[in-house]
Please model this.
Amino acid sequence: MSNMSRRSFVKGTALAFGIPTLVPISVIAKENKDDALPNDRINVGQIGCGSISGYHKGHTMRMKDIRVVATCDAYKSRRERRAAEFNKHYGGSNVTTAHADFRELLARKDIDAVIICAHDNWHTPMSIAAAKAGKDIYCQKPMSIDFTMMRHLREEVTKAKSVFQFGTQFRSMGRWRLMVELVRNGHIGKLERIEVWSRNLHHDASKYNVKPYGSTKEIPIPEDLDFDAWQGPSPIVPYTADRCTRWGGFHCPETSLGFLAGCAIHPLGIAQWGNKTDHTSPIRYEGTGNIPNEGIFRTLEHWDMHCEYENGVKLHLMDHQTAKPVITKYCPGKWRDGDGVVFHGTEGWIGNCWNAFYASDNKIWKQECKEKLHDGKEHHRNWIDCVKTRKQTLCHVEMAIRCDTICHMTRAAALTKRPIKFDPKKEEIVGDPEASKLLSLKHRDKWKVW
Model:
């Protein structure tokens, strides 16, 4: 198998004998066993070596049946440092190599799958390119800053039969899963409304070089950084001290939708799960939101959006400062700024307020659930198991697109200052051409990889 990737071998063998590409895990690899054979392992490339990549590094290093064989980042020092860490872990000097261009990494035939944790503007373009290259994909959240690209992503992932995992790992955490099971099993009665909130751009303002909205003063680009690659399809803008930072990547509109998408996507994924709406999204959005008129952090600063699903369930989406007086009216716990979700039914409520779980009656937590959702494996483990079996992941591409849709429609309603009607079947805004224009962006041809 020296000239054939493990993934190609599994798929090719199954097709040759006319059987589905569902191969038992036990046949392909021994999970987390030191005696896993080299050809049993999944070769992974990691694209993006910034702060969130440390989360992925910890999990991938613990998995004996995969090898991270390549890294890539716009910062030379980051990609080389991460490659060195993997090499030290694997006990070799050239097991993991560093790449300056992700397209070079995707062209490698020995790589089966990729973890995409570059900044938000790159998530969908890189995922599309990875699917075209025949790779399986773990993509960090959110999905896209250009709504119109997500349909193309779905098409390419489906065409390539890529196993896709969205980085909303709350679904793989036991207490979150139990909460959703209790909701779906009717233990708070019929679901009527859901409250979701997340951090806004003020949450980490103490870490900005210029507060509260980021420096606008142009400074020289560090020699270590390929700023052109960092911006990618997004327009080139002046480089400032707050631009290519952890927070700049989250709050600059050229590369992000802000924490509305970057953080709210986690509890939104739980809300969608509890409402059994992974295949769709709300059909109406009405509320408020504002964008700063200074600095470079010009994504939504505050938002207060009321949404309605076709099944009648209401969704109230807020930033954490807006949510505080709403949630503290009834939740007995001490408020902590962050992200959360509360389900309200005809017979009670249940929810999470920044890592603390509450209910209208604690007896709800002890109820039996006939409908179970999954086996509770860690998010990367679920992905790799599905890479081997070719089954659908916990956070598949359709789920990702539908969650992201809520963020885009919320932004459109906030910017136009009027209600938005959305057709989830056609995936179009209804009767509002001006709002529809907000869903697509201009891209630089140099980095069009889709």
